[in-house]
UniProtKB/TrEMBL annotation:
Name of this chain's protein: D-3-phosphoglycerate dehydrogenase
Domain of life: Bacteria
Family classification: Belongs to the D-isomer specific 2-hydroxyacid dehydrogenase family.
Catalytic activity: (R)-2-hydroxyglutarate + NAD(+) = 2-oxoglutarate + NADH + H(+); (2R)-3-phosphoglycerate + NAD(+) = 3-phosphooxypyruvate + NADH + H(+)
Top-rank EC class of the record's enzyme: oxidoreductase
Full protein segment contained here: 1 to 314 of 528
Keywords: Amino-acid biosynthesis, NAD, Oxidoreductase, Serine biosynthesis
GO molecular function: phosphoglycerate dehydrogenase activity
Function as written in the Swiss-Prot or TrEMBL entry: Catalyzes the reversible oxidation of 3-phospho-D-glycerate to 3-phosphonooxypyruvate, the first step of the phosphorylated L-serine biosynthesis pathway. Also catalyzes the reversible oxidation of 2-hydroxyglutarate to 2-oxoglutarate.
Amino acid sequence: MEKYKVVVCDHIHEAGLEMLQNDPQIDYVFAADVDKTALLDVIADADVAITRSSTDVDDKFIGAAKQMKAIVRAGVGVDNVDIDGCSKEGIIVMNVPTANTIAAVELTMAHMLSCMRMFPYSHDHLKNQRIWKREKWYGYELKGKKLGIIGFGNIGSRVGVRCKAFEMDVVAYDPYIPASKATDLGVKYTDSFDEILGCDIITIHTPKNSETIDIIGADEIAKMKDGVVLVNCARGGLYNEEALYDGLKSGKIRFAGIDVFKKEPATDHPLLDLDNIVVSPHLGANTFESQYNIGTQAAQQAIEAAKGIAFPNA
Ligand code: MLT
């Protein structure tokens, strides 16, 4: 019986690991906690690797993966995978595009609501400082606010639907979708980026690539309303971090909800010094439901790719 080696480079759900373990043709190695040099040794004779945000598939990785047929990115974003480099070496790159959609959508809502009501701050005041000061915590309502969504794919469109339920006025900007995708959901479609910049709240749900890095910078922030709220649960660097910092510091941006950073982990980032920001450590995919979906789908794709049966979501 032919055997295939699958290396799991990052933490995935136990159910995915069990699928790999239970397949008699798969030898799987769990290498999530090994250092980079050791990982390069482990992948040298692997047929497939499963990776997440913590493993960059760069030239060193690709150079070491001498026998690799495919990489499964356990999640949606492939910005930390050198796809051209993989293609040159004949390595097929797959992702798991919809498994964590709802987790990212709901985290976006949590950030948006937290920004409007400063919820983590009032929580900290009462719970950790034992201060009961109701008059300190006046927030804003989502109802009636104009929301600009940049990127209206799986995640952005679902954020739009939820924000309609909050009685917001929702506008979508996405040059890659037909306008009807938005209008069918009761969302206004615009091809004017300036219209998005004029919204009360802006959230972004695009992949990270050369078109979207720094899509919001100092010039765009200057065009925004005073007191705008910005949310980013997609990728660090879509909002230029220096411009975001300056905008928050000056009060031009009233509040920001940020789940992702240009360089992660980000434990010593200037944005963390501000007190008009809500942050989380890249939790867009971190629900038990999503992790189950991602882990099992990634394992299934890895097994099929290792055996050469199929390469879904390539
Ligand atoms: C994604 O791209 O889906 C997520 O960022 C995956 C992750 O949490 O690593």
